[in-house]
Structure formats: structure tokens, C-alpha cells
Amino acid sequence: MDFLSEHQPQLLPGNRQLPPTQGVIEAPHGTTIVAATFPGGVVLAGDRRATMGNVIAQRDIEKVFPTDEYSAVGIAGTAGLAVEMVKLFQLELEHFEKVEGAQLSLEGKANRLSTMIRSNLGMAMQGLAVVPLFAGYDVDRDKGRIFSYDVTGGRSEEHGYAATGSGSIFARGSMKKLYREDLTEEQATTLVVQALYDAADDDSATGGPDPARRIYPIVTVITEDGFRRLTEDEAGETSHAVLEHRLRQPDGPRAALL
Amino acid sequence: MSTPFYVSPQQAMADRAEYARKGIARGRSLVVMQYADGIVFVGENPSRALHKFSEIYDRIGFAAAGKYNEYENLRIGGVRYADLRGYTYDRDDVTARGLANVYAQTLGTIFSSAAEKPYEVELVVAEVGETPEGDQIYRLPHDGSIVDEHGSVAVGGNAEQISNFLDQRHRDGMTLAEALKLAVQALSRDTNGSEREIPAERLEVAVLDRTRPQKRKFKRIVGRQLARLLQADGATSAAEAEAEAEGEGSEDEE
Questions:
Q1: Strands of the B218-221 sheet, one edge to the other
Q2: Which of B54, B83, B254 comes nearest A95 by C-beta?
Q3: pTM summary value
Q4: Of A146, A228, B112, B125, whose CA is between 20 and 30 Å from A70?
Q5: Superfamily of chain region B25-251
């Protein structure tokens, strides 16, 4: 945000002087984010756990945010920095839209996020990394698209499905076996909940659905009609369906061998 | 070296005001009006690219008459002010009153600074509240004063006559279709009292609609939706048109 850097540079995350530190700074970290495309849109979902070392810092953190009408971002990494980055990113998209009278293209948004992550590289080197997953509906191409990032701001478009965060390896493995190209919106939401369950199953930093406290993953859908977050009840229903099934088959649905 | 003529401050200010007023009067008038579900902006604007109305923030809209480059400059300044405020503090801390004050300061400084020519613009800053009582409309003339308006306000060339016309006919709780028609009626009256037709393509219409589920309440009304609202007569068809307008709203949003 060029205007901000001229007028109030202290508000920009990248312009802060960092005190030299030794060892790892303890701060809450967000964990697993998953996304999958389906014909007509994309789903983006995240678990609800934030961890600080071996402690669960928060059980019901929200890590998936709408950035504008047709895009959303899910964050893994240092929660405080990530939330600030998302806020600035939301602001920037809205500001551009109001000043220019038109929305940025999805590629443009993805590039912008890339620059913002790169500006955080100094902090990332000290262990305060932010690695988001960006998903949106491309109005020009009429399809959902997913972009993943690394700590240096490197951007790559993912086809089909993607995951980020500590549980991403397990979530990716799960989606690899379950993903198909002709999923419906409902199947896609079930797919991401399954993937998050598998991530929570094998990664201690990822939280599974918590029926006792009624804390369920945040599931969002972006289609031609814009951004929509599944209500607590809808997300609960999907989670319960998955849980129910896992009571009989703890490892989840089986893919065919050949 | 020649000695400059003495010009009394009164005369200098009167000349500047005259200059600004003439500039504003050359532009077409526009109307900002309360209706049951919010605030509607109506103006005659042959251009589809250069807007007279714009969104500033969640609940705040902006309307301007006069010179395009000058009010566009002020509009972008307003968007920056609002976005910066909202980012530094909270979205709720951006208010029309604060914004109107900033505009008044800017316009006032420019108006009384001898080095610059006064801006030939007249602005309206409106904020839609949770209820009609919470609505705020501020009119900012070229000299940096602020006028707190209620019900309806007109700015631009023919403003006085249009305001009188509207004051007599505007009432609280009008539907969008009724308010729109009244505004168009007011705008189509010429200075000499004769009426002319303004086709829908030459109208620029926008609303701040408090019933919108999104945070951002500003919406432009264009194309078929506008034509339908203009045609609607009677309470039932107006309600229908509004219901349809709601449905179409999401499509038209880009």
C-alpha cells in the first residue's frame, strides 16, 4: 500500500525494527488450511486450533477470512502477524476497488499477497512465518482457483486441491485419494472436512471437530454468487456425518486399490 | 514597478465566491434524498465512466457537483482518509461527520488561500444509519461550511429551485421507486419552469441501502433494474420492483 508507506509507515508490518532475539519466540501459531476446487467454485476450510509450543493456545481461533466478494484467504503460521496481514490485504483490495471503480483481477490479488508475504521475510527468518492459502472465484475465467505460497513470497497456482500448515502433509495425502474433478459443492465441503480430520488425526497441532464444545472447522465456499461461510449448523452437520462414519471406519473412506 | 490595486478583503472573498458559484452552476444538478430503507442519490450524467456518486466506506456515500477533476481529487482523499481511519482504529470509527469535517477544512483552506483558485465543487456526504433517524446528510458548499440537511438536498446549478420543489413534496418513509420518481421529476424542471424528459440512460442512480446484508451498503442501480423502478407505479408494483431489485442486486455488484 503505497499511500500508507508514505504517510504512516509505522502501520506497515514490513517497516518494523526487530529487536535481536535468541531462540524461538513463543507466539500462537495457526495450523492447517485446506482448499479444493469443484466445477463452479472453490472451498477453503481451516481447523480451529492455535498452538504455542506444546500448549493449545486457543481452541476456537478463526483462520479463514473473506478478503472481498470473490476471494478468501486461510492463514497458517504466527497468528498475530497473519491476522494483521489479512487485515491489510482486505483493506488494500477494498481501497483499490473504490478508487478505481473496478475489482482487481484474481491474479492481481494473488500477486499482491505475494509481495506482502515477502515483506515479512525478516520475521519469518526468526521463526515468525506466515504462510497463507489464497482461494477465489475468477470471474473472467468462470472457475475457482487456488494459490499457495512459501515464506519467501513464492506463489504457485494449485490445481484441484492444496493444503498449508503443520497438518498439510496428512491433509494433502487424504485429499489426494479422495479428490475427483466432478465433485459437487456439498461433496467438496465433505472432502475438506475429511482432510482436516485426517490432519488432526496425525498432527498434534491440528484440532479436529469438537462436538462437546460445538467447535467445528470453518468451511467457506466461493462461487459465482460470491463468498459464503457455512453456518455453524451446516458445518456441524458435515462434521457429524464424517464423525459418524469414522466410528465405523476410523481411517475414513477407502480408495480403490487399482 | 506598478503598485497593485487595493482590493478589500470583502470584495476579494465575494469575487472568489462568485467564481466558484458560477463554476458549480455550469454543472448539472443532483439530488440526495432519504427513503424508507436508506438514502438515494440521483443525478443526470451522460457519462458512464465519470461518476458523480461513489462509495467512501461501509455506510458512507459521496456525491459531487462541479468540476470533475477537483471533486475526484477530494473523493480519493476521502476514501484514503476513511480507509486509513478504519484500519488504524475500527470500521465503526469512520463517520460521515468526521469525513465532512475533513472536507470542510480542505475546502475552507483552499477557498481562503490567495495562492490557489477556489474549488468549483459542492459536495454531499451521506451516512445511512440503522434506522431512518440515524441517517445523516451533510452538504458542503465551495467555501468550506457544513450544512446539516434532513430529508432531501440538491446541489449544482439549479439547486435552489430543485430544493424548494423537493421540500414541498418529500415525505418520510417513501419507497425507493417513489423517491426516485420524485427526484427525476425535480431534476427535469428547467429554470424557466418548463419540463424536459431525462431518459433512463442519462441518469446515474445509487443507493445506500440499510437492508443490504453486507457491511458495505453502497450500491449502484443500473440498466433493467433502474428502468423497472422508474416504470413502477402504485404501491404494489413498487414493492415488486424493489423485491426484484434485491434479487438482481447480487448480479450487478462487480
A1: B152-155, B30-35, B38-44, B203-209, B218-221
A2: B83
A3: 0.85
A4: B125
A5: Aminohydrolase, N-terminal nucleophile (Ntn) domain (3.60.20.10)
